[in-house]
């Protein structure tokens, strides 16, 4: 059972939903200790007081705000807990919006919200079903770890999920990172769309979505523990500079087709064939006598193809 991170309530108008917050993610990465390579002794980070020049215990450590060059103002955890914020004890829902109206770059860590006992079951279910039926997400404010935060509530597998969010002024303006304007042909864009179509799938299940780095590190540790040579891998090719964009796109489409067991032959784009047909029709029309051309103008106009 995951550990409770925070306990409080969701405030939904006049409805209160008591909840526990638990982490929605698990960390399966391999963690290392810092060691002294000569004798494998652990290297630890010690907390030293600058004035007394001695190591201090965690119970002696508190918070302090730097004011000016030489002044530090102490702030106690109890004082922070007593700040008169409605969001200090509750997740206050402020608005409901469509999910696609929120920039994904604002959305951060996810937490599951667990109803706190049987008394919370009904209002919890009410909020969950209302969110599902409205096809919207809730934007809320809450206070954790000494600051007020913005959050997003959505439903996943019948459980309400809280995502931390960045405030708008915390998102950097990316306009200065844009490349200079370049011209692309219709065929290049069409080939890119075809590549996207070939790489489109319904889910993220499969061998390619496994953490191969962690597997490789585990194999390395096992090999060293058993005093044998660790497995070696071929050096990956460094990505080269793309000179012919169209050729690179066509080759990518062919590889995507081959990986799915399809015919990897890259055919000409439909746009080119249509253009060639139009050009041939133009030449034929020019060669015909004037009488026939005049007669043709009185005939019924052909339908325009899509």
The helix fraction, in percent, is: 25-40%
Which parts are unreliable, with pLDDT below 50 for 5 consecutive residues or more?
Answer: 271-306
Order of helices and strands: EEEEEEEEHEEHEEEHHHHH
**Residues in β-strands, percent:** 25-35%
Question: Explain this structure to me?
Answer:
Helix 3 (186-198) packs parallel to helix 5 (245-259). The chain contains seven helices and 13 strands. It has helices at 77-81, 121-134, 186-198, 212-225, 245-259, 270-287, 290-298, and strands at residues 4-12, 15-23, 35-36, 41-42, 48-49, 54-55, 63-67, 71-75, 90-97, 107-115, 137-144, 147-156, 159-165. The strands form four sheets. A seven-stranded mixed barrel has the order 1-2-10-13-12-11-9. The chain has a two-stranded antiparallel sheet with strand order 3-4. It has a two-stranded antiparallel sheet with strand order 5-6. The chain starts with a strand and ends in an 8-residue tail after the last helix. It is of the alpha+beta class.
Could you list some keywords that capture this structure?
25% strand, disordered C terminus, alpha+beta, single chain, two-stranded antiparallel sheet, 306 residues, 7-stranded mixed β-barrel
């Amino acid at each position: 059972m995951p550990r409770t991170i925070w306990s409080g309530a969701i405030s939904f108008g006049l409805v209160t939903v008591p909840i526990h917050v638990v982490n929605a993610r698990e960390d399966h990465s391999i963690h290392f200790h810092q060691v002294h390579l000569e004798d494998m002794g652990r290297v630890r980070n010690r907390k030293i007081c600058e004035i007394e020049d001695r190591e201090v215990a965690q119970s002696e450590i508190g918070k302090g705000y730097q004011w000016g060059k030489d002044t530090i103002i102490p702030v106690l955890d109890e004082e922070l807990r007593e700040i008169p914020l409605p969001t200090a004890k509750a997740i206050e829902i402020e608005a409901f919006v469509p999910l696609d109206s929120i920039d994904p770059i604002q959305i951060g860590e996810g937490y599951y919200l667990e109803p706190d006992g049987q008394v919370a079951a009904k209002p919890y279910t009410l909020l969950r079903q209302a969110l599902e039926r409205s096809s919207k997400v809730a934007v809320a404010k809450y206070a954790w770890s000494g600051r007020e935060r913005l959050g997003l509530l959505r439903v996943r597998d019948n459980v309400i999920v809280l995502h931390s969010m960045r405030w708008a002024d915390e998102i950097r303006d990316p306009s200065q990172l844009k490349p200079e304007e370049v011209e692309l042909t219709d065929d290049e864009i069409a080939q890119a769309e075809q590549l996207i179509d070939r790489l489109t799938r319904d889910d993220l299940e499969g061998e390619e979505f496994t953490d191969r780095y962690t597997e490789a590190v585990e194999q390395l540790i096992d090999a060293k523990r058993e005093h044998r040579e660790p497995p070696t891998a071929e050096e990956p090719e460094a990505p080269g500079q793309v000179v012919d964009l169209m050729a690179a796109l066509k080759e990518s489409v062919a590889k995507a087709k081959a990986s799915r067991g399809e015919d990897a032959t890259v055919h000409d784009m439909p746009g080119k064939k249509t253009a060639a047909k139009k050009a041939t029709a133009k030449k034929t029309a020019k060669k015909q006598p004037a009488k026939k051309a005049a007669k043709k103008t009185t005939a019924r106009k052909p339908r325009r193809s899509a």
